[in-house]
Amino acid sequence: MVESVLKGIRVLDFSRIFAGPAATQVLGDLGAEIIKIEEPGRGDDARTFGVTETAMEEFGASPSFLALNRNKRSMVLDLKIPSARAVAADMAARCDVLVHNFRPGGMAKFGLDYETLAVANPRLVYCEFSAYGTEGPLSHLGANDVALQAHSGLMSITGESDRPAVRSGTAVIDLHASLGLVSAVLAALFHRERTGKGQRVETSLLLSGAHLMNYFYTEYWLDGTVRQRMGTANHLSVPNQAFPARDGSVIIIAPADDMWRRCAHALAPEKLDRPAFKTAFDRRQHRDELIAALTDVTRTMSCKELVDRLGAVKVNVSKVNDVGEAADDAQLAAIGGVVEQRMGERTLKSVQMPFAMSATPAVADLPPPRHGEHTDEILSEFGYDAAAIEALRAEEALGRA
Amino acid sequence: MVESVLKGIRVLDFSRIFAGPAATQVLGDLGAEIIKIEEPGRGDDARTFGVTETAMEEFGASPSFLALNRNKRSMVLDLKIPSARAVAADMAARCDVLVHNFRPGGMAKFGLDYETLAVANPRLVYCEFSAYGTEGPLSHLGANDVALQAHSGLMSITGESDRPAVRSGTAVIDLHASLGLVSAVLAALFHRERTGKGQRVETSLLLSGAHLMNYFYTEYWLDGTVRQRMGTANHLSVPNQAFPARDGSVIIIAPADDMWRRCAHALAPEKLDRPAFKTAFDRRQHRDELIAALTDVTRTMSCKELVDRLGAVKVNVSKVNDVGEAADDAQLAAIGGVVEQRMGERTLKSVQMPFAMSATPAVADLPPPRHGEHTDEILSEFGYDAAAIEALRAEEALGRA
What we know:
- 2 copies of one chain form a homodimer.
- The first copy, chain A, is 41% helix and 15% strand.
- The first copy, chain A, has 401 residues and is α/β, with parallel strands linked by helices.
- Chain A is elongated and about 85 Å long.
- Chains A and B meet through helix 2, helix 3, helix 7, helix 8 and strand 6 of A and helix 2, helix 3, helix 7, helix 8 and strand 6 of B.
- Chains A, B: This is CoA:oxalate CoA-transferase.
């Protein structure tokens, strides 16, 4: 039998909402055991974020919670109660990884900061996630994905040139940060495997946003260039944007001269293969003229015809899909990108971790947990007997009855 | 002295343009030795992508190349020449990781596919990156970041509701994929440390895009909801979008009822603290009215005033920065997010890897290399003597003189 990469690695996960849960889901896909610690009451706020009736009735949680919490068990601890904090510290002493996204200083108030926990467990990989980092003038501020889309400059370069800036439609900063967390944890586990030593690792929405913007920042630092938004186009080459079709729109990208010639000949050489468009430099110089000429051609064809004709001659082309078309596209399922799990009577579909490993495939053992579903089971595995669990419950350390 | 996490790990990097180079830069930041193999002639196409005069004159490469290629050495090999392919295979036998983004089947033509190389080096971690994956109906197609923004549905939810879809301004799919690659390589190295065995790992623009869209896909799969673009706003809560200030605009997010009350009281309670806006449900029901009322207030204030007032009461707020304001913001430098390296007379600034490790800090030993700068040095380290190098050069395996 194939062993998972992270078989035997235990993760104590205090993280909530998006970036942290997305990260620990990947660790779970890799075979780690994820113990999701939730507050009493509502638990992870993502459970009700944008919740729909169908999702609540049939799965008991919002789509975003269901998308990011497979392969985890849920346990309730009320960290305001001293005995709950003692349980958390005791569990951290026997886990390999701890993840949290409390504001800087929040875990120290509970006695669950790295310095304290590392005394009992020097092998612990302690992973912190915050908005702006744990030091510096803005470290005390909270923020979320869209705030960092604004702060990072991403919003300023997203939108039409003569219209206000818009957000990137999905939580790109949060989800990119989740893979920063995964990378940090895996790097620290590799280091621990070679040295025996744990450490503290961290990332932030700020670092995630800066990494997504890195080539714009470097360009600005070089010569002061401040790029602006250009709709679907960019400054690198022409054509490189969306064009209207009869029944939707398609992206056409042909930066190299030979690719542009193939594009012109596959669609309408008499209209497009002009000397004015010959080189990349020519095409940038005659941007408006080329876009108008190509638009005249594309608007007479269907999306399918454009994709077929241009795909066949290796011009980069794609239909502008809506969310449903994208989710149901056969290619995603064909490469194993869709995870299906039974939840009661229904099948839950979610997106696979964003990479594949030939010798150690991803696992999908557990569907997203109900709030506190595994509290007793987990306590029992950590050696708490029925009387001890009862005592914790009496103190409301596990939430109110 | 602190040892880097990936000290002693040798990476043979055939990747070009964005996702692969961004990934191997992170591995280099973690202390791996990155050997960047480039074609003769222009080398990595990113060297000239959107190149500016300043960048070319002073650093010899484009901002995007400079942003993504520190901590690497460059070596030229012309894989069309048999002796160059033999050198590549020989080096792969003595490296720990190989990364490439040739189209599916491309490396097999050179005899550099995983199955071939693993015979001599079963410990090799072989990492492939493609547009749509290596199997399935679309696997033969090329694509780039913006094509997958379209294909994934991200573009359809980015933009104003009554205007055409736009792209996310930066290469989010490429850069997110880069951390998928980093995670895959680190997971495989961890597995190898425990088992002695290498493996093939892969990711794609398709998996990266699907991961960024995961909660939209899950929602669609649950009940058929197809979300649409909403400018800077989203469907989850109100207010949660950009508002105009006297001198720019700011993002204000106050999803929770108490946070909204703090927001109203910090700005203009007489205008904003209305019964119609009391609960999250009320605010969604009176979306247009609330946005109009809040806009009336914000447009009379400066960005700084809005950020100061709302930040002080822990409402999520951020100025919509342009690229320059974002790059120069003091917080990024304060958390170590900016790397400075000497290149001749100039200092190159680039963005740090997107996470930090307390015991094993990132290294920044080498600035981005000139094309083929280290060809002889690397060959010599791999045991090729001057006569062997001369013979390779005579065959044009190292490019033309």
